[in-house]
Amino acid sequence: MKKKGVIDKSLMLCIMILTIFGHIMILSASSMESYMRYDYSIYHYFFRQLVFIIVSLVVFIIVLFIPTKAFKRLSWLGVLGVLVSLIGLMVYGYAANNARSWFPIGPFRIQPSEFAKIFIIMYMAGYYEKNKDHLDNLLTLLTPIMIVIAIFVLVAFQPDLGTALLIMLLTIFIFFAVPMPKENRNLINKICLSVILVIAVARGASVLMGQTYLDNYIIYNASNFLAKLPELLFVPLNYILHMVLSILVPSSSGLATLSTPIIAPVAANLGYSTEVAIMTMVSANGVVNLISPTCGAIMGGLALAKVEYSTWFKFALKIVITIIIANILVLTLFSLF
User: Fold this and answer.
1) 90, 104 Cβ separation under 8 angstroms
2) Cα 301 to Cα 297, 314, 328, distances in angstroms
3) Helices H, strands E: what count in the chain?
4) In terms of C-beta density within 10 A (0-12 exposed, 13-18 middle, 19 or more buried), how is residue 280 classed?
5) Are 172 and 164 in contact (CB under 8 A)?
6) Which residues of the chain have pLDDT under 50?
């Protein structure tokens, strides 16, 4: 809207063109499938979509007469409703195409993640306008981001990665449009660059290991060596092996895919506990992630706290060594039973 009571004609024209074009594309893409696969009329999906357009037009006209201030005041309720709905999908959701993303309501299905896109935009815009004089406070600045991350995770677990990625991109664009203080802007930029660098290094290491088959070489030779050892040495050396692998293969799921099919059978054939062998891998991976520069959570948190990595490493090293010793002792003890 350019001013109160006047419709933005150029915006309305764009909406009309996109709607008409999209409707024609639906007819073109679905007519033959509708007739040959489902034995419907070639206009089945065309008319069904037309019903949705008419309903949307009625809603559009109603929303047009609602004051903007009402959206600002109630947007947080919309975000809260989306969060509750996404949690509810885990129990009552309808699954289609391997994604539990819909609530079945009669002949219709409601997808909460679609409403999330709208309410996130309204919520973030209203929140940052309301708190524009307090954006020097990092907690105030990042509160909407934490809420959106919760929505992102819930959508990604459906799994609907396309919608989750779109939600994250919307959030990033809005966030970087916020007129935050220069100091906070520089800090956020450092965090983003650190995370991007970590992802690039981790991905580069994964590609290198995969292309050269170095990961398979290490795991096969190490498993052959471990198979010749007594159980009291198997656990500590298996722990050290997975610490090294955790540095070379930053992805925990990638490490599990690489290691579990080999180490678990080796342990089983030797009569050792496979549960302890798996927990050795998990605990070694976890302890490495406390100090590894390829861990995005650590690097992002350090940038946010304004702590140098070398300072954190010196502080955490003694704690990590203590955790390693405790892990090895506990795992070795349980392997004997």
Assistant:
1) no
2) 6, 16, 28
3) 13, 3
4) buried
5) no
6) 1-2
Torsion of CA 53, 58, 64, 67, to 10 degrees: -130
**Can you tell me which residue has the tokens 């309808």?**
94
pLDDT at position 218 is: 63
Q: What is the pLDDT of residue 2?
A: 45
| pLDDT tens-digit readout, 182-218 | 777 777 777 676 666 655 665 666 666 566 666 566 6
Cis peptide leading into 159, omega within 30 of 0?
Answer: yes
Secondary structure (3-state) at 96: strand
Q: Which of 195, 277, 191, 190 is nearest to 231 (CA)?
A: 277
Residue at 88: amino acid letter: G
Is residue 132 left, alpha or beta, with left meaning phi > 0 and alpha meaning psi from -120 to 50?
alpha
**Rounded to an integer, what distance in angstroms lies between the CA atom of residue 267 and that of residue 272?**
5
Residues in the chain: 337
What's the rounded Cα separation, in Å, for the pair 53 and 57?
6
Which amino acid, residue 107? Answer: P
This model's pTM is above 0.90: no
Spatial CB neighbours of 125, under 8 Å, sequence gap ≥ 6: 72, 174
CA-to-CA separations, 285 to 4, 186, 203, 333, in angstroms, rounded: 58, 32, 17, 20
